[in-house]
Amino acid sequence: MSGTSGASVRTVLIVDDDDRLRESMARDFRRRGVQARTAASQAQAAAALRAERADVALLDLLLEDGSGFDVLRDIRETSPHTRVVILTGFASIANAVEAGRLGAHDYLPKPITPAEILAVLDGKKPDPPPRVRLGQHPPSLAHNEREYIQRVLGECRGNISEAARALGINRRTLQRKLQKQS
């Protein structure tokens, strides 16, 4: 790749089950001179890494056949030199800690551009998210809690006990919250 930003990144594997986002990011990386390959699932990511290693893997946390953490574990076993960046629309401290524990290079909230990703890989901090302006209403805490609970429950494949453990709350408390949401 030419230029200074992301100079050490020649190949990137983008793992995301959102077709439009995945392909858009791949096109943008290619325009920047980075060879971009894509995968929509954990199985496709494993096959792509067996075929050819990548300098960087960008992993969405929520995949149809597993999670980005599953792919991260696979990468650490098969391609330990691949730098891994977790990308998520549902950032949490617990997931950020888990990503670091599993060996991710970074953990970034979506939406994010390839330029911002390359800057982070070069050790630069991305610009902070824009502030909410007066007259704009951010999502309520209750709304964010509902979305987060549903995401964790989905990652746990509907297992309430497992989701409660992941959330750090009692199973009955989670059941009450789910009843309130319906």
Structural class: alpha/beta
Which class of the largest domain in CATH terms? Alpha Beta
Poorly predicted segments: 1-6
Please state the average pLDDT score. 84
Strand percentage? 15-25%
Strand order of the largest sheet: 2-1-3-6-7
Largest sheet: 5 strands, parallel
What do we call the CATH homologous superfamily of the largest domain? Response regulator
Helix-strand pattern, N to C?
EHEHEEEHEHEHHHH
CATH topology of the largest domain: Rossmann fold
Q: Indicate the CATH architecture of the largest domain.
A: 3-Layer(aba) Sandwich
Q: What's the shape?
A: globular
- End-to-end Cα distance, whole Å, is 50 Å
Give me the count of strands: 7
Number of domains: 2
H/I helix tally: 8
- Using the CA coordinates, give the radius of gyration: 18 Å
| Residues in helix, % | 40-55%
Architecture overview:
This protein has about 180 residues and is α/β, with parallel strands linked by helices. It folds into two domains: about 10-120, 3-Layer(aba) Sandwich (Rossmann fold); about 140-180, Orthogonal Bundle (Arc Repressor Mutant, subunit A). Helix content is about 45%, strand content about 15%. The protein is built from eight helices and seven strands. It has helices at about 20-30, 40-50, 70-80, 95-100, 115-120, 140-155, 160-165, 170-180, and strands spanning about 10-15, 35-40, 55-60, 60-65, 65, 85-90, 105-110. The strands form two sheets. It has a five-stranded parallel beta sheet, sandwiched between helices. The relative contact order is 0.11. Mean pLDDT is about 85; it is low at about 1-5.
